[in-house]
Amino acid sequence: MSERTLIKNLSASADGDITVSGWVETVRDQKKVQFVVLRDESGAVQLVNPRSFGDDGVEVPSEIATAISGLSQGTFLTATGELKHDERVKLGGVEIKLAGLEIATVAIAETPIAADSSIDKRMDWRFLDLRRPEQNLIARVQTTFEHALRTYWIDNDFIEIHTPKLMASASESKAELFEVKYFEGKAFLAQSPQFFKQMSQPAGFGKVFEVGPAFRADPSFTSRHATEFTSVDSEISWIDSHEDVMTLHENLLVAALTAIKEKHGDEIAALFDVEVTVPTTPFPRIPLAEAKRIVADRGYEVPRHDDDMDPEGERQISAYVKETFGHEFVFLTDYAASIRPFYHMRHADDAGLTKSYDLIFNGVEISTGAQREHRIEVLEAQAREKGLDPEELSFYLDFFRYGVPPHGGFGMGLSRVIMLLLHQANLREVTYLFRGPTRLLP
User: Fold this and answer.
1) Residues whose CB falls within 8 Å of the CB of residue 99, separated by 6 or more in sequence, listed in order
2) What domains does the chain contain, in order, with CATH numbers?
3) What is the pLDDT of residues 145-168, one digit of tens each?
């Protein structure tokens, strides 16, 4: 078999013999000429087969013509033929005049989903839904995003770690844990790598990162929650405040969005009608109390009993930042200790506030970060204040009994960032295989 050429490389290839492989997207079986649109992981091309006729005007049957007439959408095949550049061809300015077809697998003629199928129906047949060019681009954008983050980390001497996803006890809220049988006992699926990435700090690793799965037993049916998701985490030593964590966070996002804009900006504009904007630094920073006042002035009151910022408040403060600063990101800082974990450091002059932040992107929270409390006596006191038994946290608290530097970090949901970047309405659209309270298949 001739060497396969990716369809995206056809425009740069010379006219002549060529081999491409992919799946059938459409067939136009006309009387005088047959057209097949073949798509692979990189793009689509038009295959052309002029029918043959004798002097009497009667068609001379051919194997290729017969094969094309029997093609069903989704059939995978290899096509050989002559590549021709022709600017009149709308699909990439090239086409292939067929010389041969080799069918790898035949698809069932009638597909179970269509362009107007519901999202749940499309999730049932996700492997077919993923054939859409938009889904292919989403996967490539995510790949570029992760690669850019990893490049930044490695170029800045971070260490990559892989923390366990089976835990003996809760890392944060027991209410959001999945319990699993573990030999003669039980274990829990990790809801975050929080404790273990902090363990790297007394180990002297300094700056670390991880991209890995996390699990939340949260029965939420919103457009932005999942029970299994990919968490992007980083933790750094020798910080002065959460400001150092925010600086790291914004630098990472600038690097990632720069790479995405350079590599995929035109495709994103064409398929999603979205212009990728590389944000300026520093990102706007607004203390939560001030943000609530700004939102109130815009006509929305965050419920008084809520120390947090609710989803509508996030949308309102994002709109304000967009109008005032022309920015898609905003750090909301200084959250109340009442709604933050026991390991968040508190302000020396106001123990009711933590040195923490939420990062809001296009109206939705994508991350929480903070300086961690590293003084063992303070950490134990804050755990008790939260109703936690230090004895149950002994493995974690031991980290702080043998010396640990001031440190902090963040955790960020990967799919949520991609969803907001591409202006998608639902996390399921940008997750390869979504897991929610009622979905474990496919």
Assistant:
1) 17, 64, 80, 81, 82
2) 7-105 (2.40.50.140), 127-430 (3.30.930.10)
3) 999 999 999 999 999 999 999 998
